[in-house]
Design a protein that fits this description.
Layout: E1 32-37, H1 49-62, E2 67-70, H2 80-90, E3 97-99, H3 103-106, H4 112-120, E4 125-129, E5 132-136, H5 151-164, E6 170-174, H6 188-195, E7 200-205, E8 212-216, E9 219-223, E10 232-238, E11 243-249, E12 257-263, E13 300-306, E14 316-318, E15 321-325, E16 330-335, E17 341-346, E18 356-358, E19 361-365, E20 370-375, E21 381-386, E22 396-398, E23 401-405, E24 410-415, E25 421-426, E26 440-441, E27 445-449, E28 454-459, E29 465-470, E30 486-488, E31 491-496, E32 500-505, E33 511-515, E34 528-530, E35 533-537, E36 544-549, E37 555-560, E38 571-573, E39 576-580, E40 585-590, E41 596-601, E42 612-614, E43 617-621, E44 626-631
Parallel strand pairs: 1-2, 2-3, 5-6, 6-7, 7-9
Antiparallel strand pairs: 1-10, 4-5, 8-9, 10-11, 11-12, 13-44, 14-15, 15-16, 16-17, 18-19, 19-20, 20-21, 22-23, 23-24, 24-25, 26-27, 27-28, 28-29, 30-31, 31-32, 32-33, 34-35, 35-36, 36-37, 38-39, 39-40, 40-41, 42-43, 43-44
């Protein structure tokens, strides 16, 4: 027997047994069938094309769907050529396909979201079909693996559902899964608070490559393996029976098998509508990961400031002011002592780029394709220079030139005074010819790691290539492209995603030494060079931080926080090393021996940004839209 979900049970999910009943054609004109699939992962040279094409044709022949939804990871790397293959998958199928983006569509391509929009549609939107409201959400963060819903999108969703009302059935689609462990979207509770008052019947998820069915606080939720792996769902919206029926097709069970039914009628047990951002206590926030093992004192929080967007960049503190660029495109100057706003400037796109201070100017790039200079004193825009692609990288400044890479494959040398282009350097053409990490400089050269597997040294005055060295002999995914360089003592220290920390001679590019971690891997976190030692975070379950001798690459110490570190890079000040982990924890370690001396847990939100520290304080921000100022513990031990 296939149990169904009743109003009384608040959608207690019914999972089919081994039966495979025939699925009848729906005669009522208000009834319709659609298909849900995800993770097509179209690659270059026809990767997954034949497998996906055969199943899409099968849908057309067996189901005659009114429409289909692709739940994200349309492509492998978000490259335009991969969409050419996807066009072949959908050619002539006879029904429209709607799409949500996945992390693979944006993670390795600076123009990924733009290409997605151009080729398959807006990253988030809604539409109506035969009395059912479809909501397609964007859970992606550009250049990142993890999921997050920006506040602006949640406010759009809130307004969209208010317009639809509480009676109309709503089907919601998101790539990163929600409502099950491990948590992939840090603010899934904010999403739940936005949708809970409305008649949301089902949440369709991707990303996990598993055939699953679960319940999220009374809302039926489902996921498939990738389409190329042989899975998709037939969804029958039956107006006469007032229900939605889910049937799954798999490689093992090619005839779609009924797995659940969900009533279309609205439940009366719905709370009042509250605006996004109001803390009402419903759906209590969950940590992103288990509480780490180390038990250490909590840092003293001096202040907390809510911004208008989440933070993924490197924070910067100088002369009593904290500078923070945010995911809503804002650049914020806060008083370091108490978090009071000094000024706020706005770009027209997402800010992954970190602020850099030079000659009374704050230099920052934006996903809108421009590089900006704002006046330190009051935030007034002094100039903006447009490039040919989104600017996720951060600048370095030398000889009156701000060097910064763009998603168009060029490095721009901009006149610091007025933003005029002094020179450009074009990376050798390839699908992965771009850079996203901060640039470094020794005053004579700029150093940039790129996704084409190489590290570049460019003359600061002319942009001429001084040297070019490979960062990996593996695929582009292992490039020296996420962690930025640390420069000092005539050496450039730069990590590659393949778990190698390189030390290159700054003048010649000759390799001085390389270091490979025996545990969690170097690559994503930018190294910090202080007093002859390199401090760097490592990617892995142990949440390791490592200290390495700058002279010879010898490991000095390793400390395990127990909590995954992703992009966050260490801030070293007052004999202490501060670094963030994905679960929202900020860790403070002794620089001399790696002892964990304190921590602080920020409000729920992924912490991928890099803290800033100095004068007895440390500052951190996360996807939660919150920035905090914390007091560092006293320096307890000097290094011998």
């Amino acid at each position: 027997m296939i149990p169904s979900i009743t109003r009384r049970d608040l959608l207690k999910l019914g999972v089919a047994s081994g039966l495979s009943p025939a699925l009848r054609w729906l005669p009522d004109p208000r009834s319709f069938t659609f298909a849900f699939f995800s993770d097509t992962h179209l690659g270059l040279e026809g990767r997954n094309l034949d497998a996906c094409r055969s199943l899409v044709v099968e849908m057309a022949e067996r189901m005659r769907p009114a429409l289909a939804i692709n739940g994200g990871d349309v492509t492998d790397y978000g490259w335009a050529g991969e969409y050419d293959g996807y066009d072949q998958v959908l050619a002539g199928i006879g029904f429209p396909v709607h799409h949500v983006p996945g992390n693979h569509d944006v993670r390795w391509a600076p123009r990924g979201l733009q290409i997605f929009r151009e080729r398959v549609g807006a990253p988030f939107r809604s539409f109506d079909h035969a009395g059912v409201h479809f909501v397609l959400l964007d859970s992606t963060v550009p250049l990142s693996h993890y999921g997050h819903y920006e506040t602006a999108q949640l406010r759009w969703l809130e307004a969209d559902l208010r317009r639809v009302g509480r009676i109309t059935p709503v089907l919601l689609f998101t790539h990163h899964w929600v409502g099950r462990a491990p948590v992939m979207v840090d603010n899934e509770d904010a999403l739940y608070r936005a949708i809970e008052p409305y008649n949301v019947k089902l949440v369709f998820n991707g990303h996990g490559h598993s055939d699953l069915l679960w319940e999220w606080n009374g809302i039926a939720s489902t996921m498939n393996k990738g389409l190329y792996q042989g899975s998709y769902q037939r969804v029958d919206v039956d107006a006469l029976a007032a229900e939605v029926r889910l049937a799954r097709r798999t490689t093992e069970q090619p005839d779609p098998r009924l797995i659940a039914t969900v009533p279309l009628a609205a439940s009366r047990d719905k709370r009042p509508v509250y605006p996004v951002g109001l803390n009402i206590g419903a759906a209590a926030a969950r940590p992103v990961a288990a509480v780490p093992a180390p038990v250490v004192p909590e840092l003293e929080r001096r202040w907390e400031r809510r911004l208008t967007g989440g933070v993924m960049s490197h924070l910067l503190v100088a002369d009593g002011t904290l500078y923070v660029s945010a995911m809503d495109g804002s650049v914020n100057a806060l008083r370091a002592a108490d978090g009071a706003p000094r000024w706020k400037a706005q770009t027209d796109g997402y800010c992954h780029s970190s602020p850099v201070l030079a000659d009374g100017r704050v230099i920052v790039g934006s996903a809108d394709g421009q590089v900006y200079a704002f006046r330190v004193r009051d935030g007034r825009r002094l100039w903006a220079r447009r490039t040919g692609g989104p600017v996720y990288a951060s600048a370095a400044v030398a000889k009156g030139v701000a060097a910064i890479a763009s998603g168009d494959g060029n490095v721009y040398g901009l006149n610091l005074a007025d933003g005029a282009v002094r020179w450009t350097f074009a990376l050798p053409p390839s699908p992965s010819a771009f850079a996203q990490s901060p640039a470094g400089t020794d005053g004579e050269r700029f150093f940039i790691g790129a996704w084409d597997k190489h590290v570049y040294a460019l003359d600061a005055a002319t942009g001429a290539l001084a040297w070019r060295q490979p960062g990996t002999d593996r695929s582009f995914a292992y490039s020296p492209a996420i962690g930025g360089p640390a420069v000092g003592g005539g050496t450039v220290y730069i990590p590659a995603n393949g778990n190698v920390l390189h030390a290159f001679d700054a003048a010649t590019g000759a390799t001085r030494w390389t270091y490979t971690s025996p545990g969690d891997k170097v690559g994503y976190s930018s190294p910090a060079l202080v007093d002859g030692r390199i401090y760097v975070g490592c990617l892995g379950d142990r949440g390791e931080v490592r200290c390495i001798s700058a002279a010879d690459g010898r490991e000095v110490w390793v400390a395990a926080t127990g909590s995954t570190i992703y992009d966050s890079s260490p801030a070293v000040a007052d004999g202490l090393v501060s670094i963030g982990s994905v679960d929202g924890s900020l860790w403070v370690l002794a620089a001399d021996d790696g002892r964990i001396v304190a921590r602080h847990r920020l409000p729920t939100g992924h912490l991928l940004s890099s803290p800033a520290a100095g004068d007895g304080s440390v500052y951190a921000g996360s996807f939660s839209d919150v920035v905090v100022g914390l007091t560092l513990p006293p320096r307890t031990m000097d290094r011998a």
